[in-house]
Write a structure and sequence with these properties.
The chain is 33% helix and 25% strand. The chain is α/β, with parallel strands linked by helices. The chain folds into 3 domains: 181 residues, FAD/NAD(P)-binding domain (3-Layer(bba) Sandwich), CATH 3.50.50.60; 81 residues, no CATH class; 111 residues, Alpha-Beta Complex (Polyamine Oxidase, Chain A, domain 2). The longest helix is centred in the last third of the chain and has 20 residues. The two termini are 13 Å apart.
Length: 429
């Protein structure tokens, strides 16, 4: 039987990887020049390692990644380090990544600090998420922390992450952010490309066919076969997995069950835009890796200095920062071109580090991704899409499927494994 996988991000690649030893004849179609999806990368001439356009790291709790890395024999390529996370508020960078740092956070009173620490501890220890999905994170955190503490600590971050939908996100999403994350982070020598290349190599050894530069325009089931048309080719498959954003799936897939299609169209995803700056000097020179912007109305929600985590020697001794934000694609910031957005961002970078000057920038790379963050509404478990669709032989897998988990490569790998299991069950029938 012929399986067509549309999309080669971590989910699509993982599905193929976990099906590689089955009798299936597997073909991957990808519109970009190489695999990787949202984990795509670039490399400057004087760098030894590749770097992702969007910020990437793993948590030490990311079991699916651990398992995959071990299977591929890449354990020695993992870098595991403690990192420093802080927030920027009232013109100051304040550490905020441990119980002690919470208790020292001077911008809220002691009672609020104690409440914050207690709530974080409860969410960390509580294994049950469904109780939190019936209330918005805004309401839950305002009640739990107090209005002022919420407005300082979390409200600007929700706005930066979910744009106009910030007050509609359910509290289970926030539960996962606290429950599953670790202070220690992981990265891979050479960048995420090292892992992707290893997976790709295993697929090629297993005779999986990879067709790059093949943007799929339509998928239609005729009789018992799926006809997939790209801009210049036509493919025929017995089974299809679409590892794509739902917004694209509903546009290119003809003949979807009407009610099922309507349920998918109700789910929303917003975009992300990121600069990667190669700098002559360290920007977060007090050692912070991840800086949340807790001020309102900044044109970015975070700054991460990659070279406060991974040695700058791998990047030509430059200092590397990501500067990013999630947005609706009708936002005024989204409509700016790269030059306009850069000029809008620079004054705010100077507010964070007054010594910063545009002359520090050796190079910059800018990318927009239209579908980067699902909107997690109330009672999401009741509307979460299924991998198996009403169309026999058609499967879909997107970031909207990983709830209550948050977007990330670990959960994309886990979703790919689940999709592979669904397809294995289908071919056994």
């Amino acid at each position: 039987m012929r399986l067509g996988i549309i999309g080669s991000g971590f989910c699509g690649l993982s599905t193929a990887y976990y099906l590689r030893n089955t009798p299936l004849d597997i073909t991957i179609l990808e519109q970009n020049p190489d695999v990787g999806g949202l984990s795509s990368w670039f490399k400057q001439k004087n760098w030894d390692w590749n770097l992702e356009f969007l910020i990437h790291h793993w948590f030490t709790s990311d079991k699916a990644i651990w398992d995959l890395v071990r299977e591929l024999g890449l354990e020695k390529e993992l870098i595991v380090k403690d990192t420093k996370s802080s927030c920027f508020y009232k013109g100051e960078i304040t550490r905020f990544d441990s119980p002690i740092s919470v208790l020292k956070f001077k911008h809220i009173n002691l009672f609020s600090r104690l409440r914050t620490g207690l709530v974080m501890a409860i969410l960390k220890l509580d294994p049950f998420y469904k109780k939190y999905e019936n209330i918005t994170a805004y309401r839950f955190l305002t009640r739990a922390l107090g209005k002022k503490a919420f407005s300082i600590l979390w409200e600007p971050l929700f706005t930066g992450k979910f744009s106009d939908y910030a007050n509609k996100i359910n509290a289970a999403w926030f539960w996962y952010r606290i429950h599953a994350r670790t202070k220690k982070l992981m990265y891979m020598r050479g960048g995420f490309k090292t892992l992707i290349d290893s997976m790709k190599s295993e697929l090629i050894k297993s005779n999986c066919k990879l067709h790059m530069g093949q943007k799929v325009n339509s998928i239609e089931k005729k009789s018992d076969k799926f006809i997939v048309k790209t801009q210049n080719k036509k493919f025929e498959f017995d089974i299809i997995l679409e590892a794509l954003p739902l917004e694209i799936i509903t546009k290119i897939t003809h003949g979807l069950d009407k009610d099922y299609k309507l349920s998918l169209e109700k789910l929303k995803t917003i975009g992300a835009q990121y600069f990667v700056f190669e700098l002559k000097k360290s920007f977060l020179n007090e050692g912070t890796y991840w800086l949340n912007i807790n001020e309102k109305d900044y044109p970015f929600m975070m700054v991460a200095e990659h070279t406060n985590f991974i040695s700058k020697e791998h990047y030509g001794n430059s200092h590397i920062i990501w500067v990013g934000k999630y947005l609706n694609i009708d936002s005024s910031l989204w409509k700016m071109n790269e030059k306009e957005l850069l000029e809008a961002i620079l004054p705010y970078l100077k507010k964070i580090n007054p010594a910063f000057d545009k002359s520090w920038i050796k190079s910059s790379v800018f990318r927009r991704f239209s579908y980067a963050q699902p909107i997690i509404s109330l009672k999401y478990s009741t509307i979460k899409p299924t991998i198996k669709t009403p169309t026999n032989g058609l499967y879909i897998a997107s970031m909207n499927h990983i709830y209550p988990a948050d977007r990330g490569t670990n959960n994309a790998v886990l979703l790919g494994k689940k999709a592979a299991d669904e397809i294995k069950n289908y071919i056994k029938k």
